[in-house]
């Protein structure tokens, strides 16, 4: 997956890759492995200078054609894990028959353990050519150092959740290591498995997450319909249709259709010109007496559903000019700003009667409440990032201390801030227009 997408001509990048990587036997091995297990595909894995890997079309792929029809037996999933007796014997002997590791989060723990088990088999693993392509380092946020997180993520809306996720990964890893599994002897191994699953899982019902050779190596780009992989009618294949036409030699791309905070958090890249981008803000109910609070919560439930009837609610806001470019239009995500305005307007009712009769019209107070939250986020993200210190000259050069910040992560933080600040400024303009319209309603002639 690219660090930050810039759509350079892929054939040029491919040429550079052949110069940069004169000997990539593991890629040839993987392509042979994939062709053997999933014939009749027009896809090949390549390595090139800008990204880690990419997938190209080896023949023309028409738009909306079925360009992957990958056997589910080729995927790493909870289903293939439970169908592997030696692995399940180890799970039962070390974790017990009622460990419950297959439940929740799409089978995250089960799949992570199965990935580590297959890695421990080396070349004896049926997935060895695929495993050889997997990265050993990451730029997703759980891999950042404490210094990088503290200095580069100032104002990031998910900082508290990030700290919890990192602690949970380490706690889960330590608990699993303590069970004596022969293929998991260090928490660092579990961190690697968790990063693999977070950066490249592909989901479909009913099993949840999967690692899908070739398909999980397709990079992301904006401006196309959202990616969707579905189980074939016979339940034996993972099917994906092309979002647009790809000529022979083109890089095959998918639109993951997520905001940049998701890309940064889970994948370790940021998209330019992301039509699915939005900014998270959290709104809270003001202090109210019990009777008013009950009426407000009832009004919120009626207007926004159960997810909106909370003392604290998070909305991902996108200006209309951005959300209108989504193909196809999203549902709740597109409505993030209107829903936030409605929440804030209903939340500030001062009496049960006012809450009961506020069936949906926005209020100036509601608009100003949302603008205050946006302003706060804007201020937090406007704090300048620290500069990368110049390298220290040492003799020999290898004695120089490592940089305080990974340059790619510094660039990621800068790209995320730039894109998010642009969204916030557009939101401020739109909120000003809302307030102006409500303060000065149109005259009869204007209607």
From TrEMBL:
Residues 1-24 form the signal peptide. InterPro entries: SET_dom_sf, SETD3_SETD6_MTase. It comes from the Eukaryota. Keywords: Signal. CDD domains: SET_LSMT. GO terms for molecular function: protein-lysine N-methyltransferase activity. This is SET domain-containing protein. It comes from Sexangularia sp. CB-2014.
């Amino acid at each position: 997956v690219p660090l930050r997408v810039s759509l350079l001509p892929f054939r040029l990048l491919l040429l550079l890759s052949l110069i940069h990587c004169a000997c990539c036997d593991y890629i040839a091995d993987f392509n042979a492995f994939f062709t053997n297990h999933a014939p009749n595909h027009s896809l090949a894995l390549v390595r090139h200078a800008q990204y880690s890997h990419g997938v190209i079309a080896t023949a023309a792929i028409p738009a909306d054609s079925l360009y992957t029809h990958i056997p589910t037996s080729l995927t790493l999933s909870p289903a293939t894990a439970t169908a592997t007796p030696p692995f399940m014997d180890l799970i039962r002997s070390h974790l017990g028959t009622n460990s419950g590791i297959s439940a929740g989060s799409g089978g995250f723990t089960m799949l992570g353990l199965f990935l580590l088990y297959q890695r421990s088999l080396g070349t004896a693993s049926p997935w060895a050519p695929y495993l050889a392509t997997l990265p050993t380092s990451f730029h997703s946020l759980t891999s950042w150092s404490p210094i990088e997180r503290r200095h580069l993520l100032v104002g990031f809306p998910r900082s508290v959740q990030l700290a919890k996720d990192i602690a949970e990964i380490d706690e889960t890893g330590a608990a699993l290591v303590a069970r004596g599994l022969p293929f998991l002897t260090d928490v660092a191994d579990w961190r690697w498995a968790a990063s693999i699953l977070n950066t490249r899982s592909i989901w479909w019902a009913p099993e949840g997450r999967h690692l899908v050779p070739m398909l999980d190596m397709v990079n992301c780009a904006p401006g196309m319909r959202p990616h969707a992989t579905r189980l074939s009618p016979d339940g034996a294949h993972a099917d994906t249709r092309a979002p647009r036409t790809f000529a022979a030699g083109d890089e095959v791309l998918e639109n993951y259709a997520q905001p940049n905070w998701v890309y940064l958090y889970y994948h370790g890249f940021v998209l330019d010109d992301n039509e699915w981008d939005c900014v998270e803000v959290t709104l809270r109910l003001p202090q109210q007496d019990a009777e008013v609070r009950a009426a407000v919560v009832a009004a919120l439930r009626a207007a926004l559903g159960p997810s909106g009837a909370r003392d604290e609610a998070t909305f991902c806001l996108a200006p209309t000019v951005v959300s209108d470019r989504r193909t196809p239009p999203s549902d709740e995500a597109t409505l993030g700003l209107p829903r936030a305005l409605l929440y804030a307007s209903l939340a500030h009712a001062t009496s049960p009667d006012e809450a009961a009769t506020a069936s949906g019209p926005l209020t100036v107070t509601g608009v100003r409440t949302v603008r205050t939250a946006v302003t706060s986020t804007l201020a937090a993200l406007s704090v300048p990032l620290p500069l990368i210190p110049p390298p220290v000259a040492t003799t020999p050069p290898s004695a120089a201390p490592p940089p305080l910040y990974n340059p790619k992560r510094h660039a990621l933080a800068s790209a995320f801030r730039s894109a998010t600040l642009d969204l916030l400024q557009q939101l401020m303009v739109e909120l000003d227009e809302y307030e102006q319209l409500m303060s000065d309603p149109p005259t009869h002639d204007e209607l």
